[in-house]
Amino acid sequence: MVERPVECNQCKRPIRVMYKEIVGDLMICTEMCGECPVLEQKLHGQPLSTPAKEGLTGAETGLCCNNCRTTLESIKMGNPLGCSECYEVFADLLLSEISAANALPASVKKAIAAKRAQPLHIGKTPQNPTQIPSSSRLNALNEALNEALKKENYEQAAWLRDQIKDITEKGSS
Amino acid sequence: MKEKSNLPPSLLEHIPWESVANPIWPATTFILHRNLVRYPFPPKMSEANFKQTLPILSEPFTQLPLLSNPTFLPADQITTFEKEFLYEQFLASDSLQNTLRGQGFVVDDSSKFLGLLNIQDHLQLLLIDTQGAWENAWNKLNQIETKLSASLDFAFSPRFGYLTANPALSGTGLVVQAYLHVPAIIHLGQLPETLLKQGDEGITATSLGGTTDEVIGDLLILQNAFTLGVTEENILHAIHSMSMKLMALEKSLRSHLKNEENPEIKDQVCRAFAILLHSYQIDAKEALSALSLMKLGLDLGWIEGVTDAKLTQLLFNCRRAHLSSLIQEPLTEPHEAARKRAEFLHQQMHGIVLKIEAR
């Protein structure tokens, strides 16, 4: 909602450089941090992920996706994955990166640490589309109500009870 | 804008928040990330890949009965201003201004759906709900994805779920953002404690500025922290439950403010009124903060002559691209935008009365 992003478009560090390109009647602004590889690409015209460049890093680290040439080093730097096969090639690293980014529930982290065979993905699958039941809203409200009562926040509990009553009445009419 | 817009007229005429159902919870966005199995992900695509995939991705939308009159907009055929309009309209997280040839957007007449093509992932399906009917909104988005999957082969693995360029979004590939307008919690200094006490490991709080240190327009954004290891229902339940707790707290604090004298908050509302009425130029951040306090003042009975719906509309419409569209003038220079925004807000303040009197 601010009129200019405050972070690098690529890595979310504070902006140091604003790069403007005029292509025909179109002006393209890219905001970047000082260390941005995109800046190097813009200034020297070298693509970010040329096989030669990636190959060099890949040789250094030894692990590289054969399909898209994404390297282990590149993933460790937080760069995006290149293709579906990267998930097979870098499976273990990805899990530790996702876990380090606090993007896994504690229960899943514990299961991984204990080397328990727990499925990671438990949501929708291509074979099994899901629907959210209409009772889901009531469940969330009831949970909030119980918590408010437990903390003796009676004013909040009263408001939540009104919300539940509204939904229940609408549902039965 | 004086020049003819490349965006469909319905998008310019119907803004999602013109009929917001809940003043404290004005909007929720649902975003599904998907990739095609046979192509590299967009960060690794060649120019030929972009050219090849764009028609493959855009074509199935034209045959979707779930969308009303879907329109495909190639990124190189709309202006940077129009991209900013889309960014504002759909409360997108990342700027769309750098999108180029081989990337594109799909919108429809509902003004609530945005498809992002070849940006970060091959597909990002975004639906915005302003009616509080979040189960319906999610189920509609889910149906859109299911229909698309009949003609597009999405990258999926049983272990990691739907595969995304950012591995932290794999699994469900679903990001839900609830926008909560909570000025009482923020101005009474209760936000850090509330987030600590009510915190849920599955939810992160942020704001339009990307941090909770400064919550622009007092709009707090709750977002799911996990997409892997949880179901879609888990995500929606956690967001809804946390939103209801914060709404109950906000209501309770407002009720205290009504009954107890609080000179600091009264002063802030008076100053916000004066800023909106008398500024010569005003940037978007300052305008949002002032409008937020006006909404609070209205609810507390300190302001009259306006509805909450109108203030909510102003809150979202005073951003540059929407303002530019409303006044039909291109606002390229920041100072010009700030001056025109002040002028626009002066007009909108007509008939609004401050009921607080200095003693």
Q: C-alpha Rg of chain A, in Å?
A: 25 Å
Question: Care to count the β-strands of chain A?
Answer: 2
Q: DSSP helix count of chain A?
A: 8
- What percent strand of chain B? 15-25%
Secondary structure category of chain B: alpha+beta
The chain-level mean pLDDT of chain A equals 75
Q: Helical element count of chain B?
A: 12
Order of helices and strands of chain B: HEHEHEEEHEEEHHEEHHHEHHHE
Report how far the terminal alpha carbons of chain B are from each other: 46 Å
Helical coverage of chain B, percent range: 40-55%
Give the assembly state of these chains.
heterodimer
Could you give the count of β-strands of chain B? 12
Strand content of chain A: 5-15%
Question: Overview of this structure, please?
Answer:
The complex is a heterodimer of chains A (173) and B (359). Chain A is mainly alpha-helical and 173 residues long. Chain A has helices spanning 37-44, 51-61, 72-76, 86-89, 91-100, 106-113, 136-150, 154-172, and strands at residues 17-23, 26-32. Chain A has eight helices and two strands; from the N terminus they run E-E-H-H-H-H-H-H-H-H. In chain A, a hairpin with a 2-residue loop joins strand 1 (17-23) and strand 2 (26-32). The longest helix of chain A has 19 residues, at 154-172. The model of chain A is unreliable at 1-6 and 46-60 (pLDDT under 50). Chain B is α+β, with helices and mostly antiparallel strands and 359 residues long. Chain B has helices at 9-13, 47-62, 80-89, 134-149, 183-187, 191-198, 232-259, 263-278, 284-299, 308-317, 320-327, 334-348, and strands at 27-34, 71-74, 104-107, 113-119, 121-129, 156-157, 161-162, 174-181, 203-207, 219-224, 303-304, 353-354. In chain B, helix 9 (284-299) runs antiparallel to helix 10 and helix 11 (320-327) packs across helix 12. Chain B is globular. At the A-B interface, strand 2, helix 5, helix 6, helix 7 and helix 8 of A face helix 4, strand 6, helix 7 and helix 9 of B.
